[in-house]
Amino acid sequence: MKSKILIFALSSLLFLQSCDDQLDILPEDGLGSATLYQNDAGALAGLSGVYSRFVAAYRESILNAMYPSAVTDEGFENRSVNRFFLENSFASNNAQILDSWTLLYEGVYAANIMLAELENSTGISETSKAVFEAEARFLRSYLLFELQKNFGGIEGIPLPTENTLKQLLPRTKGVDVYAQIIADLEYAEQNLPRIQEATAGRASKDAAQALLARVNLFRAGAPFTNDGDYYTKARDWAKKVMENGYQELNPSYEDIFNKLATEQYDTKEVLFQIGFYFGNQDQNQSNKLGSTIGMRVDDGSCNNRGYGLISAAITLTEAYRNDPSDERGLWNVSPYYVPNNNNCEFRTQFNQTAYPASKYRRFLESGGTGSYGPHHFPVLRYSDVLLMYAEAENKLNPGSAAALDAVNQVRNRAKATPLVGPITEALIQEERRLELCFEGLRKYDLIRWGILEEKVNETKAALQAADGSENTDWPIYGSGSPATRTNITENYYLDGYNNYVDSKHQLLPIPEQEIGANDLITQNPGW
User: Fold this and answer.
1) Helices 174-191 and 205-220 sit at what angle, rounded to 10 degrees?
2) SusD-like N-terminal domain spans which residues (predicted)?
């Protein structure tokens, strides 16, 4: 199997569907250890079904990509009509909220079934069981982490395990949810293979270490407190990745995303990615990443449309332009787009306040149709590990030279001007924005730092101030003679910022339908 790439679902769609369908059946309904989980091949089939649930949770590219960028100092949703829950204008009965909740819990449920079946199996060796269990627990931990970040807070989320498959559950306190997530990941770290030995696209020891660094940082931050030395744990897990001797920064920032667009695995830089697959014009395992949050392509004949639904915050654009040597600037926030009827050639967009996020470039995709394609999504990158290390190390040792060095490794790869120091918390936070924008992290970072409201207000003010200003990119990148080169801040760019209520919008509401079906659950504040 290691010689073949597994794209979170097996290449054979028929095999995937048969496994996936079987996972809907409870053990007592016929799919018990006497059938699927009696050998390694059967367990692999079950695991493939768990991965397919994992992929399904993210194929619309909302919760993992658009929502964490919207209404932040990274970007905003740029449509005049309310789209999903990207403008802080929705209620607890919103269909997309329910979809996100349901799909994430379906993945948790599938992992729990697998764990229960492995426990009951008599046909699989204990050694193999440990590896399969580790992979299922890795996936469960990631999905629970997503649920906790979005819906949990102090009060937490319902926490189903392999021992509570059919029970209605109350909310479990957030600290206890994190305890389960960390326990799952520590087990995975002990029992998964190194990334060099793992099948491409699947969980590994290295990915578990990096995710442990991230989870411990979140446990240390708001709304929680560092009451268990979590910064030390985060630093040590990140350092373990740094000392593995395998991970390294790709010399080219651009190449990371070229590879993701063309379904490749760069395991030295990207420790874990959500792999999507598009075959035989089937969309079930594909996603909308390139069409929703990537470079704008108006002409669908140029290898499919790119809608560019998320625009970069003007403060992010300006931060890049203030350091012209930083190669990330024109990759992540490009003034170029592909208009209709222009022979698929680029043109310069006149309105600097509305540049779409351009990190994901759909015209590089090898397949796809309509809004869906096979663009992979980066979950954990080595540059993130370096910045997590810097953050935790600086928390423990303010002004740390080691933290400064880690940040400058990231900046040097991008050819950005190195920081002289001393390193500060604010500089590290800004570096995360410059390096990791539009990778599904920013809103959650701002929440755990306790500065989301501050950045919402700053970004709104900057957008308002930019209205009527001159597009400063035009003398460098512009072409042709548009009627105007004056920036325009449309009123609807501000909708999400105007609607933001700090006491309410740090969490999504638990779906109304879930509240109605389970009277053990209470709603989040403000909803």
Assistant:
1) 160
2) 64-217
Residue 16's alpha-carbon distances to 9, 11, 265, 318, 493, in angstroms, are 6, 8, 21, 46, 42
**Half-sphere exposure of residue 97, counting CA atoms within 13 Å on the CB side?**
21
Name 43's Cβ contacts closer than 8 Å, sequence gap at least 6. Answer: 36, 37, 114, 118, 121, 124, 128, 132
Is 0.85 surpassed by the pTM of this model? yes
- Adjacent-strand bridge partners of 74: none
**Other C-beta atoms within 10 Å of 295: how many?**
23
400 φ/ψ angles, rounded to the nearest 5 degrees: -60, 130
In the chain, how long is the greatest CA-to-CA distance? 74
Q: Omega into 324 within 30° of 0, i.e. cis?
A: no
Which parts of 56-156 are beta strand (E)?
Answer: 75-77
Q: Among candidates 123, 95, 102, which has minimal Cα distance to 36?
A: 123
Amino acid present at 263: E
All domains of the chain in start order, with CATH: 40-75+90-251 (1.25.40.390), 279-506 (1.25.40.900)
**Mean pLDDT of successive 10-residue stretches along the chain, which has 527 residues:** 31 32 33 73 95 95 96 96 87 96 97 96 96 98 98 98 93 98 98 97 98 98 97 98 98 98 96 87 83 92 90 98 97 95 91 96 84 95 99 98 98 98 97 98 98 98 97 86 87 97 98 96 97
Distances (CA, A) of 283 to 179, 245, 379, 409, 466: 36, 38, 21, 39, 40
Stated as kind and residue range, the H or E segment containing 266 is none
Cβ atoms of residues 269 and 257 within 8 Å: no
Residues in the chain, overall count: 527
Q: Which residues sit opposite 357 in a β-bridge?
A: 333
Backbone angles phi, psi at 334, to 5 degrees: -95, 140
Q: Can you tell me which residue has the tokens 């979170």?
A: 8
